[in-house]
């Protein structure tokens, strides 16, 4: 006896769609981190410890989001795109939060009185990249409207490189004590690594889009 209902359609290769939501959540958390970086600029040294605590909480939330993606990846038979690309995208998003949290932590640990001029430009670039990344993640569902995203993030990374070079030149102009140069250089280097990580995310998204086209 044949009981097949013609109105019921079965997908033989279902795709796990929760990845899209998890990537979007991870990117939204990065926006939270970038806002905390902006807060750091306007905070006096006494208020920075509290910002660092909130950044640590955001970084832990980012870790949880990344672990959730990896767990889903390991338990899914069919994925929306290549497993390697899912892993790379999740890892690069996690790297961004790690670098931003490290920068805030270093400012507090080193008792930095005043950040050098130019750091605010670094952080502004990161905040813009965070916004673009959060806007782009939901578009992974359709692979539409992504080209401008990765082009703009790559442009921002080039801008971040220029800001970083100028900051290094400023730090080595002889006005700072050697120990202060070491502290401040580590902070601006970590912020530069965050910009690089945004570019890695954008490049991974481009790779995924090309494969899916």
From TrEMBL:
Pfam families: PhoU_div. It comes from the Bacteria. Transmembrane segments: none annotated. InterPro entries: PhoU-like_sf (IPR038078), Put_Phosphate_transp_reg (IPR018445), UPF0111_domain (IPR052912). PANTHER family: UPF0111 PROTEIN YKAA. Belongs to the UPF0111 family. This is Phosphate transport protein (TIGR00153 family).
């Amino acid at each position: 006896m044949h009981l097949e209902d013609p109105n019921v359609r079965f997908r033989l290769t279902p795709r796990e769609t929760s990845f899209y939501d998890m990537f979007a959540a991870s990117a939204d958390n990065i926006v939270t981190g970038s806002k905390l970086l902006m807060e750091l600029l306007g905070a006096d040294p006494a208020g920075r410890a509290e910002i660092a605590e909130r950044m640590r909480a955001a970084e832990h939330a980012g870790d949880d989001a990344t672990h959730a993606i990896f767990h889903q990846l390991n338990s899914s038979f069919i994925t929306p795109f290549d497993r390697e690309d899912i892993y790379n995208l999740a890892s690069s998003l996690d790297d961004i939060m790690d670098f931003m949290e490290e920068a805030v932590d270093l400012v507090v640990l080193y008792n930095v009185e005043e950040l050098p001029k130019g750091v605010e430009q670094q952080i502004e670039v990161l905040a813009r990249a965070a916004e673009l990344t959060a806007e782009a993640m939901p578009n992974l569902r359709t692979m539409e409207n992504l080209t401008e995203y990765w082009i703009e993030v790559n442009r921002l990374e080039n801008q971040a490189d220029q800001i970083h070079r100028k900051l290094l030149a400023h730090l080595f102009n002889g006005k700072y004590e050697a120990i202060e140069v070491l502290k401040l250089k580590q902070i601006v280097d970590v912020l530069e690594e965050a910009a690089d990580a945004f570019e890695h995310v954008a490049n991974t998204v481009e790779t995924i889009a090309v494969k899916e086209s």
